[in-house]
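Tokens in:
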């Protein structure tokens, strides 16, 4: 498992302060995912979190940039802890399932990371990729343990990006999914279809051979 980032250790110890801290991060995650770094003010976050004034917000985070990085670091840490270095096909499938379950519960996480990498890099530069590094490093370690014989070395980064987009792209673009006639992309049925698709697609990309299932009368 990846080690926690420095930002994740700043959560207050007191129950009430910790609850306020978590509420601020939850609200900021949603707003930053919706509008990006430049489209959200500290006043917006304080109001949405139900704080009486911005001063309460600054008690926890000294600046908007510090809050943004803490939001990213929290989600990256959670994602990193979901993945294990696979030793079997079952481990690969378990990694996929855990990521799908997490993103189905917290779809704004996928959009937050997408915005951070594409839009907000203009404002935060290399800090974005420093915060994302624990997750990308854990994902790369997982990828190195599976069969990559179909791919040339220079193609591996494209493979990694492709798998990332397969998993995260669905949840980062829910409106697009609805436009493509997936009426309720977060319904249990739709999420389960996406899970099955991801497992089949990633098995093909990694040349994972699934054992054929014998008919019931041959399994006795």
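Residues out:
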């Amino acid at each position: 498992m990846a080690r926690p980032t420095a930002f994740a250790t700043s959560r207050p110890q007191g129950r009430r302060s910790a609850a306020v801290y978590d509420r601020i991060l939850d609200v900021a995650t949603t707003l930053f995912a919706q509008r990006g770094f430049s489209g959200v003010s500290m006043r917006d976050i304080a109001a949405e979190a139900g704080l009486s004034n911005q001063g309460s917000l600054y008690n926890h985070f000294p600046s908007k940039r510090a809050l943004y990085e803490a939001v990213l670091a929290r989600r990256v840490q959670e994602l990193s802890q979901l993945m294990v270095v696979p030793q079997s096909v079952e481990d690969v499938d378990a990694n996929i399932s855990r990521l799908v379950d997490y993103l189905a519960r917290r779809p704004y996480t996928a959009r937050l990371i997408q915005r951070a990498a594409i839009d907000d890099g203009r404002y935060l530069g290399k800090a974005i990729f420093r915060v994302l590094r624990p997750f990308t490093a854990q994902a790369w370690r997982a990828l190195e343990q599976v069969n990559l014989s179909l791919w040339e070395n220079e193609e591996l980064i494209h493979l990694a990006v492709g798998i990332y987009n397969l998993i995260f792209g669905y949840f980062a673009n829910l409106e697009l999914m609805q436009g493509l006639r997936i009426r309720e992309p977060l319904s249990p049925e739709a999420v389960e279809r996406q899970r099955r698709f991801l497992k089949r697609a990633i098995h093909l990309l990694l040349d994972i051979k699934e054992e054929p299932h014998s008919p019931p009368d041959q399994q006795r």
